[in-house]
Amino acid sequence: MKAVSIAPHIWALHSDVDSGDLFEGIWPIPGGVSLNSYLVKGEKTALIDLVRDWDGAAATLEAGVLDAGADIASIDFLVLNHIEPDHSGWLREFRAKNPGATIIATAKGIELVKSFYKIEEGLRVVKSGDTLDLGGGINLLFEEAPNVHWPETMMTYCPTAGVLFSCDAFGSYGKLGDRIFDDQFTPAEHVTYEKESLRYYTNIVSSFGLFVKRAIAKIATHQVKIVAPSHGVIWRTNPQTIIDRYSKYASWLEGGRDKEICVVWGSMYGNTERGLKAVTAGIESEGVKWVSHRVPNVDASYILTDAYRCEGLVIAMPTYEYRMFPPMAYVLDLMDRKHVWGRKVLRIGSWGWIGGAKKEYDERVAPLKWEAVDPVEWAGAADDATLAKLREQGAELARRVKAAL
Ligand code: FEO
Who has the most CB within 10 Å: 6, 44, 182, 304? Predict the structure, then answer.
């Protein structure tokens, strides 16, 4: 991939990963993902963030550095905003090619460089407010952004160009191809990117929403003209769009979520599914939109995305061997980890010879502080009275979602 100038003295070097691998070994990325690095040249040269040698990314990075008129061996400073291996995995190979470059990270970042890569020399710790003078009037300013995504994370800002190298913050799934800037994509492509930004946020960053808010407050003190994240589109025309989008996602921790309902369901022989149809009829009777995901058929990555944005949830599953339907247990565990808290929720489900899902469900969702609509359970096939109750509870959930702040 060619180096692309994004401002005087600054080039974007991006590698598209389209290998079919899972991101973090968990999350599907059918549209790929980009690993973005940046080269900043004053009298000295800084490379901001590395790559993991993944689907040819290291060779692409080397070619991009050459295209920008430098080479790996001539880089003076390697700035590592974040040590997760998608941005640092090639560090030992980099060090072998360039033993003299100073590696810059936060104190926690330097500790991770030592533990992951066993590198002990040529390391510099920086903290918020520290600067790096590259000469020729080009400076870099560092701002710690802990927990966006790991505790060691920082952002780097170039005041002369107004470029914020934000690392994971403001990133997205999705490979880029030959276009990298927000103004180069069609409205339809932006719709896809927005969905993938939210899916990336819920999968990767949502556990750290409070820290996202703090990071956004910090960068508000700078005049950001270009948001240059480590994954996805570079925002040069409307940088506030992605900042506002992340701000909204972080605010969903407290409320203001979409007044819609995410239905998560599993069914063994159709009895829970038939009951669910009565629930969704009740939801529709109140004019509330709903979206449905069946477990385990739909990957949890997508379920989390809708659960995170929706005010209401329906959890529909049968009892399975005295306990919950197993794939639902996995999804509920992720909802806790990713802070899908405070939702209005209706649980329904059938059982065969004996119930049991309720006990495990109640224990598992207790930390999520969900507001429960009275659940409905039944043996075998739902009779007419049960179906009527299911419809009414669906309508009740919809009313509560509409009334939410
Ligand atoms: Fe893109 Fe948290 O690494």
Answer: 304
